Amino acid sequence: MTLEPGAAKMNAMREKIEASEMPESLGAFVRERAETLGAATLGNWFEDGETLSYAELDERADRLASNLLALGVRKNTHVAVMLPNVAAFPVSWVALGRIGAVMIPVNVGYTSEELLFVLSDSDTQFVILGADYLDALERVEDKLPLIEGDRVIVHGAAPEGRSSWSELCENGTLPFEPPTPVTRTDLLNIQYTSGTTGFPKGCMLTHDYWMLIGHYASEFRSQSGEIRNTLIWAPFFYMDPQWQFLMTMKLGATMHVARRISLTNFYDWLERYEINYCIFPEPALKARDPSEADARLSLKYVSIYGWRRDSREEVERRFGVTAREGYGMTEIGGGTIVPAEATEKSRELTCGLPAPFRELRIVDETGRDLGDGEEGELWVAGRSILQAYYKRPEANRDSFRGKWFRTGDLFRRDADGYYYIVGRLKDMIKRAGENIAAREVEAALNAMPEIEESAVIAVPDPQRREEVKAYILPKGGENAPKPDPEAIIAHCKERLAAFKIPRYITFVTEFPRTPSRKIRKTLLDGDPDNPAAGAWDRQDGAWH
Q: What is the pLDDT of residue 5?
């Protein structure tokens, strides 16, 4: 078969990357970048007025690592990091990586109950967290026997009996040498991700996992021109900002970091900081009048996820840059990428070609390989995908077939070798960039005494792409009183992070079911174009 031009170039680039030597660890990578780039600005936390050079990151991580070691953090020690988008996050990550410790990133929106689950499940022994989140930890600290006193390291005002992150970072000794060598196959993160079992699962990710994704991401982004400035707006406790941070370092660029996404300020950020690369949120297209002078922007490469064709074309028309899809997940890192030359293909709803170090298969329910144009589950294998789910033997049994990881996503491949996502086997909701497991929300709802059973689905939303809608069967039969929607929301607030709480609530007298009595969710939403119809809307506080 004669390869389409983009595919031919992609194969050549993939071979180049796969033949290159990568740093052995995160700490070694940061050291090399600091020696090369020194005082150049790596990070600009522009809303806080804080900057960090390559050399400052290297030095602060060394100082922090030396003091963490003195506190008792050793190789393979599990340390949770619960910080917002501040410079302390990457400094802490690099410091832990230098020791050979394992970081557990924690969502700052978690309730005490969710925090208790993650810290217990991950066997966390130390916690680095912002002062604003100390109350949430203290409400459950007596249930966490491994965490106490100075093992809680506070960024901000540290009360008596707690360790101060700033003091640990300022007073450490230089240079730092780990007592035990850190290698590429050592664990760096246990990264929790929502799953179909209802509760998050910890993905065991090595130093090499992160080196691969950071290095090949920089190689492919740079094919569209020199990238000097990147914009990071998603929370650092997710994987996307972490690999964008590594990519920026490899590019020798500056990352401009927002506290959180703001559609109101998004274009101002792009223009003010001359951003060349970012993940572009689709709702931002509607946040600015298309007649305004978008040509002033410096964008050279834009990543998108799950966009419609007309939105992709609008990006190209307004900004003069191609919007490129990709496919990845926490478990595998990057799976596919659209090469720079594939401008025509990028307008299609393709996720691209296999990423470096990745093998892909599309199989039927028996594991038989399918041909071009046939739809089946995507399986992925390759160097340094997740080692396993932490303490999840059943999930590991279900998710792995030898070297192959089952993604749970439905794909097809065209004759040029490009992959297209068709649907999801997983019962997931993607709300404003946050992954929500429907079963986790259902478990919280079903714990309310007035609820017999619930079913949670994703419904379209123009601003957040998807919203959470809950169908509720009250306890007590058809004539039983319906729970107050406000009481349901209050119940959820005690158990779920704010982004997981249903926006829409609808009551039912029965659920459509399969012969095995499972709820047929595909038959629930009668009017997908108007998800508020007949529902109570949390945002409006009213029935529609």
A: 62
According to DSSP, the β-strands at 400-401 and 326-329 are unpaired
279-314 core/surface letters (b: 16 or more CB in 10 A; e: else): bbbbbbbeebeeeeebeebbbbbbbbbebeeeebeb
Cα separation, 205 vs 333, whole angstroms: 9
Q: How many other β-carbons are positioned within 10 Å of the β-carbon of residue 528?
A: 11
Could you tell me if residue 37 is left (phi over 0), alpha (psi between -120 and 50 degrees) or otherwise beta?
alpha
Please give the model's pTM, rounded to 2 decimal places. Answer: 0.84
> Counting beta carbons within 10 angstroms of the beta carbon of residue 333, is it exposed (0 to 12), middle (13 to 18) or buried (19 or more)?
buried
- Report pLDDT for 196: 47
In order of 130, 218, 325, 465, 467, the CA distances from 533 in angstroms are 41, 45, 33, 18, 14
The neighbouring-strand residues paired with 404 are 401
Which residue shows structure tokens 């299609």? 348
Low-confidence ranges of the chain (pLDDT < 70): 1-6, 195-198, 290-293, 295, 423-426, 514-518, 526
Instruction: Give 141's contacts (C-beta < 8 A, 6+ positions apart).
Output: 147, 148, 152
Q: What is the DSSP letter of 363?
A: E
Q: What is the DSSP letter of 395?
A: H
Read off the amino acid at residue 125: Q
For residue 94, what are its two tokens?
A: 């690099």
Residue 509 neighbours by CB distance under 10 Å: 10
CB-side neighbour CA atoms (13 Å) of 528 = 10
Instruction: Report whether 404 contacts 361 (CB < 8 A).
Output: yes
Q: Report the pLDDT value the prediction gives residue 498, as an integer from 0 to 100.
A: 92
